[in-house]
């Protein structure tokens, strides 16, 4: 789930669950093959991971593992398909009828696995329930612009907004916007042990901390029709077990938990395929603008002028992540390389000019934690210190703290500059920029900018996609000039599949979880 820094063999159960999606087990079937005909074996994809889902209910708080289950069991009104950065219909076709009215027309004949019809009443119930529960860390806050959902008929749901919100189509693609069966879900509490959705799969077995069994939902009507009969997701304890399962052929797909060394070795094997795509996760260094040092624009801009991202990435991560030149990564609407445009190449003379009138070397306290941002965090801050110290313009002091103490130190303003990581909650450029603006966001850095605030409000209310991308680009330019945050790198999503597994690249969602319906052998 999102960082707490304000945010990260066919089993018997699987076969038994699959019966419900085809025909009642043991009942006669008029379409059964004649004697002598062969019946194709069930294709159940075996997935292993080191992450166990913590929540099945999409109205609750969820991590990446939970989103993988939710994203395959539930259906949303809209979705984002591989290679398409904008939302497309899933359960419905939606459009703005006015700046504050968003109408979704449901497909006909939608059903839940229990046979209940999916209607606009379920859509309204799902949103009212999610907002009403207000689960800490849950999705309710994302939909603050929605005042109500009206249902003029069984196939129409209308979202009424208090103000124009161009983010809404993107918000409706998230697992938090999943549609649940109002006859199966309690209104005032989370459903912890089961899940009833209309997505590509139905949940047939769940052993918390151990396994999740999914069976193809034959009545699914949407954009992700399954090409397999089911999925068995098993949680293993560590990277060693993860590697063993995939290399021994006991699993078809493995993800989340490999070490860099394991991945490098797996890339040389002809028994598996290692597939990567750009990840939505980013890491950066944020300035604490309550600090007298960090408040000086010249100091922030000089650091931006000095940092050598490719060298840092190579030193700390052996180039397993990608240098990032804006808070918004490539692939998201409106993304630019604003910091590259503003500062070109690392340049000591240019940095010195920005520090005119400032006593040198500038003392700078940099905070980091060894227990939140991965095994490369120490090498990353050491390389940042080396680069800044080598310029002769800065004298860097590193201060490390374990995660709980680190959070407290950040809130207390103990650092001039501190390490941060971020995974957006919805697939839109807005969620890379807004968290750093003002005082109400998840990053308490004290960044107040009239220009940034104005552009943020303009892009949120702009319904013309081209114009909105332009506004997002201008907002990134403001960030590059004012440097409240220094983007450093973008992560990569990596999965390892068996050599005979098809469509592996199609499972990767930019937000880190997996859509499993495209997989087949």
From TrEMBL:
InterPro entries: Peptide/Ni-bd, SBP_5, SBP_5_dom. GO terms for biological process: peptide transport. The keyword Transport applies. Keywords: Signal, Transport. GO terms for molecular function: peptide transmembrane transporter activity. It is found in: Cell envelope. It holds the Pfam family SBP_bac_5. PROSITE patterns: PROKAR_LIPOPROTEIN (PS51257). Gene3D superfamilies: Dipeptide-binding Protein, Domain 1, Dipeptide-binding Protein, Domain 3, Periplasmic binding protein-like II. Residues 88-440 form the Solute-binding protein family domain. SUPFAM superfamilies: Periplasmic binding protein-like II. GO terms for cellular component: ATP-binding cassette (ABC) transporter complex; cell envelope; periplasmic space. Belongs to the bacterial solute-binding protein 5 family. This is ABC transporter substrate-binding protein.
């Amino acid at each position: 789930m999102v960082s707490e820094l304000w945010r990260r063999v066919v089993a018997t159960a699987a076969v038994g669950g699959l019966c419900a999606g085809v025909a009642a087990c043991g009942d006669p079937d008029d379409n059964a093959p004649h004697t002598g005909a062969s019946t194709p074996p069930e294709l159940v994809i075996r997935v292993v991971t080191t992450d166990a889902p913590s929540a099945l209910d999409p109205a609750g708080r969820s991590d990446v593992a939970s989103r993988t289950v939710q994203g395959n069991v539930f259906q949303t009104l809209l979705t984002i398909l591989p290679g398409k950065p904008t939302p497309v219909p899933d359960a419905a076709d939606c459009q703005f009828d006015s700046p504050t009215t968003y109408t979704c027309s449901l497909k006909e004949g939608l059903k839940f696995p229990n046979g209940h019809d999916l209607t606009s009443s379920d859509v309204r119930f799902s949103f009212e329930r999610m907002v009403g529960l207000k689960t800490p860390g849950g999705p309710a806050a994302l939909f603050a612009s929605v005042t109500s959902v009206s249902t003029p008929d069984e196939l129409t749901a209308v979202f009424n907004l208090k103000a124009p919100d161009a983010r809404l189509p993107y918000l409706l693609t998230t697992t938090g916007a999943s549609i649940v069966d109002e006859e199966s879900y309690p209104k005032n509490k989370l459903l912890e042990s089961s899940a009833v959705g209309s997505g590509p799969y139905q949940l047939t077995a769940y052993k918390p901390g151990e396994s999740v069994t999914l069976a193809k939902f034959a009545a699914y009507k949407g954009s992700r029709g399954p090409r397999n009969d089911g999925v068995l997701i098993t949680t293993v304890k560590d990277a060693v077990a993860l590697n063993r399962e995939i290399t021994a052929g006991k699993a078809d797909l493995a993800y989340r938990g490999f070490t860099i060394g394991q991945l490098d070795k797996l890339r040389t094997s002809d028994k598996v395929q290692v597939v990567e795509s750009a990840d939505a996760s980013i890491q950066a260094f944020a300035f604490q603008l309550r600090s007298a040092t960090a408040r000086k624009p010249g100091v922030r801009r000089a650091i931006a002028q000095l940092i050598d991202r490719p060298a840092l990435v190579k030193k700390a991560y052996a180039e397993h992540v990608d240098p990032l030149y804006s808070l918004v990564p490539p692939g998201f609407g409106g993304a630019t390389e604003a910091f590259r445009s503003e500062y070109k190449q690392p340049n000591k003379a240019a940095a010195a000019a920005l520090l005119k009138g400032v006593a040198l070397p500038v003392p700078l306290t940099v905070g980091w934690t060894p227990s939140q941002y991965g095994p490369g965090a120490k090498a990353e801050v050491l390389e940042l210190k080396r680069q800044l110290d080598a310029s002769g313009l800065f004298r860097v002091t590193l201060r490390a703290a374990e995660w709980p103490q680190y959070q407290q130190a950040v809130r207390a303003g103990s650092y001039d500059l501190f390490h941060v990581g971020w995974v957006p909650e919805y697939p839109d450029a807005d969620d890379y920029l807004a968290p750093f603006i003002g005082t109400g966001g998840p990053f308490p850095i004290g960044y107040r900018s009239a220009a940034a605030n104005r552009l943020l409000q303009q892009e949120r209310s702009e319904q013309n996609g081209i114009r909105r991308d332009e506004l997002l680009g201008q907002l990134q330019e403001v960030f590059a000039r004012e440097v409240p945050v220094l983007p450093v790198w973008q992560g990569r999503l990596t999965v390892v599949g068996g050599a005979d597994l098809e469509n592996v690249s199609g499972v990767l969602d930019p937000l880190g979880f997996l859509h499993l319906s495209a997989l087949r052998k």
